């Protein structure tokens, strides 16, 4: 496989990953909007009970905390932020799939924004999952920056 084909395949793999993140966010937003028509705390308690979890444990108590916050959430702001995130993920995926420079810039920028927050989260809560998230995001950003650098180098050559 020649380098250009390999780079295109890698960019398309990243594009699929970003599109999946956009679809997951869309599903999550739809799920949250659907929950607004229910007693969210009761749904969370049923879920916790179904899996035999302790409501006082870290994650179940966090779920209950957010279940209590959801009914008082600014719905317009939630939809606006969720829609913006979803649109950016899909736009980035399209740009990367088509091997556009703007897609690489958008991917490097939007992925790079999260790295400091992910590192802080990793420091406070050291786990393999958090380490993998940081490593994967850093690798994607590094690859996109490298692709942009190659694009600029090729442009500068006569």
Architecture overview:
It is a single chain. This protein has 158 residues and is mainly α. The chain folds into two domains: 1-98; 100-158. It is built from six helices and no strands. Helix 1 (3-35) runs antiparallel to helix 4, helix 2 (40-50) runs antiparallel to helix 3 (58-69) and helix 5 runs antiparallel to helix 6. The longest helix has 33 residues, at 3-35. It is elongated. The two termini are 25 Å apart. 13% of the residues are buried. The model has no long low-confidence stretch (mean pLDDT 92).
What descriptors fit this protein?
mainly alpha; 2 domains; 0% strand; 158 residues; 6 helices; elongated; single chain
Short synopsis of the structure:
This protein has about 160 residues and is an all-alpha fold. The chain is built from 6 helices and no strands. The mean pLDDT is about 90.
Quote the distance from N terminus to C terminus.
25 Å
How many separate domains?
2
Biggest sheet: strands, sense, closure?
none
Query: What helical percentage do the residues reach?
Result: over 70%
Unreliable spans: none
Average pLDDT level: 92
Rounded radius of gyration (Å):
20 Å
Coarse shape: elongated
Helices and strands, in order, run as HHHHHH
- Count of helical segments? 6
Structure summary, number of beta strands: 0
Relative strand content: under 5%
Structural class: mainly alpha
Oligomer state of the chains in this structure: single chain
């Amino acid at each position: 496989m020649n380098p250009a084909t390999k780079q295109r395949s890698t960019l398309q793999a990243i594009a699929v990953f970003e599109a999946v993140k956009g679809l997951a966010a869309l599903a999550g937003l739809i799920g949250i909007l659907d929950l607004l028509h229910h007693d969210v705390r009761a749904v969370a308690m049923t879920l916790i009970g179904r899996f035999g979890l302790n409501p006082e444990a870290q994650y179940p108590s966090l779920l209950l905390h957010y279940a209590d916050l959801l009914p008082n959430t600014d719905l317009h702001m939630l939809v606006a932020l969720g829609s913006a995130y979803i649109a950016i993920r899909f736009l980035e995926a399209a740009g990367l799939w088509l091997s556009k420079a703007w897609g690489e810039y958008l991917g490097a920028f939007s992925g790079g924004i999260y790295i400091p927050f992910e590192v802080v989260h990793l420091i406070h809560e050291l786990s393999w999952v958090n380490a993998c998230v940081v490593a994967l995001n850093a690798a994607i950003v590094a690859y996109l920056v490298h692709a942009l650098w190659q694009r600029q180098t090729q442009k500068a050559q006569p």
